[in-house]
Amino acid sequence: MASVSLSEAEKVYIVHGVQEDLRVDGRGCEDYRCVEVETDVVSNTSGSARVKLGHTDILVGVKAEMGTPKLEKPNEGYLEFFVDCSANATPEFEGRGGDDLGTEIANTLYRIFNNKSSIDLRSLCISPQEHCWVLYVDVLLLECGGNLFDAISIAVKAALFNTRIPRVRVLEDEEGSKDIELSDDPYDCMRLSVDNVPCIVTLCKIGCRHVVDATLQEEACSLASLLVSVTSRGVVTCLRKVGKGSLDPESIFEMMESSKRVGKVLHMSLQSVLHKEESLGPKRPKVGFLG
Amino acid sequence: MPGDHRRIRGPEESQPPQLYAADEDETPAARDPTRLRPVYARAGLLSQAKGSAYLEAGGTKVLCAVSGPRQAEGGERGGGPAGAGGEAPAALRGRLLCDFRRAPFSGRRRRAPQGGGEERELGLALQEALEPAVRLGRYPRAQLEVSALLLEDGGSALAAALTAAALALADAGVEMYDLVVGCGLSLTPGPSPTWLLDPTRLEEEHSAAGLTVALMPVLNQVAGLLGSGEGGQTESWTDAVRLGLEGCQRLYPVLQQCLVRAARRRSAAAPS
Question: Range with the lowest mean pLDDT among A76-80, B7-11, B115-119?
Fold first, then answer.
């Protein structure tokens, strides 16, 4: 994670402010910064999304390719995650420096999608044991401004919502050999249902209270955080403690209650923004990277 | 003798025969959800490591070794900000490097020794759970290496590795605030899901969700938490964490006795 130098006085200022439910930029403890979400930004992908959360900038591209299903699950497709921490984000990521953080984030993404209900993997199957759709979700970290996990999970959800998988038909001839036919119409696509895709809510423990969506400075004051991955219905799919410090059991229970509340609001606003953007159709104003 | 790949044209990959066997309907038997399997723990068994521990719980066997403190690699980094609470600045603090490995014969299918993603994730989980307990400020510019080797996976492997690692650190004489005790849980699938404490491998395979909790028993602080799966609502996970913490507290006396015995053995063996 990018490091930031803070003096003792600044740390004390942040900690005391959080005790009073007032953070440095004026937010309350459970408020997110302003989030900008834009989908369909990269034309060569099956689906893409860009999320800007304060100073954190994430770009996700989803490419759907045909592959063979895994042996244990012959009727399902699967997702592969790759996270690239680019050197633009912070000089520490130059060369192999960002690899550790990238693998940690990718492993967390695998964990939150590791259950039957997040994504309907059966709809990704073309013919059992032979062909299936593999969704390669590639996350690019453009700028690191604190709270990476939340921003990445929002971007992944938006990109999956935007993913259009072409419809294929399997034709069998008399000899039994199968041929895959792609439909001629480029707009004849299958969409994925993202109702149950979870979003990560990171709660950082600062002093005796916890904050949602911490900036880099606030992360430097917190010794331990709890990462909760929650769906729009309040189902928790992943729970993880991050950081060098330890947490009190009571604060863990409080944090989980908060994460449920915050998660519901986050999902509702994300759904409404995605549907609104979709309804504007191809004529919507594109913001792109310099807006 | 290594296989001659140019002449022996076998398949590229090999599979265990169980994959092609008829589906066995082995469902785990119903049992008391709060039962803990009996644990055998022994510290101070490896001669080459500074500290070591072996833990056996049911079918799970873990061996852990600690070496160090030795000089930290990575060169000098500029003096960072002081940690909260006035400890040594970040660049001077010691480092804990944890490595979790599965033996290739530990599970049902043979795993290549370079496990990759999952082992790095579990190594990171070990590090995050042990860091709150170790007084790294007392080992400036040094690193402690903890390596856990899973010999057989009989369920709750990460929890056993955590406990063994903490015992090994204590056996090595590393300064710690408290021991770290780990406990595994799994959720039974179906209409009435219940959380089971200390699941066996069969129960883990048939589970809908799994959770590992690490507790520092005397300070009553949760040092580590890692869970995933379809666990249901937050209340269900809260119950699971409570059950796990209770399990950790019950396990603590066994570990205390193990360390006392190891200390006695060491003082008896030392030349007077």
Answer: B7-11
pLDDT tier, A2 (very low <50, low <70, confident <90, very high otherwise): low
Nearest-Cα distance to chain B for A40, in Å, is 30
CB contact under 8 A, A103 and B120: yes
CB contact B190 to A (< 8 Å):
no
Which chain B residue is nearest to residue A241, measuring alpha carbons?
B225
Residue type, B81: P
Position B211 pLDDT exceeds 70: yes
How far is CA B78 from its chain centroid? Answer: 33
At position B220, the amino acid (one-letter code) is N
Burial B86-96 (b: 16+ CB within 10 A, else e): eebebebbbbb
Report residue A6 CA to chain centroid gap. Answer: 29
Question: What's A263's DSSP letter?
Answer: H
Spatial strand order in the sheet of B95-102? B39-43, B51-57, B60-71, B142-152, B95-102
Strand A168-172 relative to strand B39-43, pairing: unpaired
Q: Note whether ipTM > 0.90 here.
A: no
Distances (CA, A) of A289 to A57, A58, A91: 10, 11, 21
